[in-house]
Amino acid sequence: MSQADNEPTILAAEVPEDPTVELPLLELRDGLSDVVETAPELAEVIEAFRGGSGPVAVDAERASGYRYSHRAYLVQLRRAGSGSALVDPIPFGDLSALGDAIIDAEWIIHAANQDLACLAEVGMVPRTVFDTELAGRLLGYPKVGLASLVSEVLGYRMRKEHSAADWSTRPLPAPWLVYAALDVEMLIELRDAIEAELRRDGKWEWAQQEFAAILQAPPKEPKPDPWRRTSGMHRIRNRRGLAVVRALWEARDQIAAKADISPGRILPDSAIVEAAAAIPADRDTLQRLTAFKGRGAHRHMRVWWEAIDHARRLPDSELPKQGARYDGPPPARAWADRDPDAAARLSAARAGVSEIAEQHRLPTENLLSPDTIRRLAWSPPADADLAVFTEFLRTHGARPWQIALTAETLTDALATKPAQTPPPSPEPDDAPPLVDPA
């Protein structure tokens, strides 16, 4: 463990304005601490962080792309007066005592929605958070990856070469540990500088509401028919082929879950799609498919063939439907034909929300959920009253600041029928943008 007393505060104003100036490489201030792997070491860390002051920078490393589970394989922390700590959760399983030691502190987490679940799995659940990635979105930064924000706001260049490493590896190599420790090295300073910007721009209350919403969000429900997310599945044009995709996906998922290996390392999506397009008549034909000649695919060849054969024999009544099940409006691209008035409402609503987002330097999807806009435009309240629209937004998860900015505009847009019905512009799914890897 290393000491972090008297850490310098670095303000955004100190960042060199000349783009030709090379940013200094961020280094560990106090050297690399040992990984905490034993009960006595953990007890020492718990007491050190209990005795620290101010917010706690928290991060977690998973083995995405390598393991089936989303568990944390390393937890990193830093706090003034406590220093930095790298904790291996695998020997302990439960880190609730560590979480309890810092429960009254604000936890600074970059892209909290990615880490909260795996932290909760080991018993670490915050009461308050400050999400630097989300705050960067509210401030209109074009890139909100941790390295990008540290560079833009604090003027340091971060190493990111181990972001896709297999963190289930043991022992963890020293360069990986340095990378992991750097992820919390500047989070406290970044948080303070970003708070100053939020207050200056009148967005501090917005951020507070967003951070609270992160903690209040219910656990994500599994999406129906997860096999439909198989990459390249658009090539499959018939229901029998879809049945093959489903059967292979489910067989692969069972193997992957049991072995705790990423499904794509058991059998790539491309192999599933190739088999679904060909629908081989026997096992020998399956083995001759290009994607099934590798050692990984060959290892479970009996399983793959049984899955395909089962799909081949299904009666038509049990074949999956072409379209995915969805409890909301139809895809926006179909609105102009199915309901021209709804298409007009959607275009007007999107235009109004987009204009507000631009005025406040916000990503449109952070101002209001695209799914909420679609639902409102497809089935607007019968009474075009501001109070009714406000309640609709509230019940669909909009925060007070979002409602204050958009409710009146949406009421006007959806109450007025345009003279023409332009087709809605393409809209991404209601999912947050991909986190900038930098």
UniProtKB/TrEMBL annotation:
Matching InterPro entries: 3'-5'_exonuclease_dom, Exo_C, HRDC-like_sf, HRDC_dom, HRDC_dom_sf, RNase_D-like, RNaseH-like_sf, RNaseH_sf
Domain of life according to the entry: Bacteria
SMART domains: 35EXOc, HRDC
CDD domains reported for this sequence: RNaseD_exo (cd06142)
Residue ranges of every copy of the HRDC domain listed in the record: 238-318
Residue span of region Disordered: 412-438
Protein name: Ribonuclease D
Organism listed in the record: Kribbella deserti
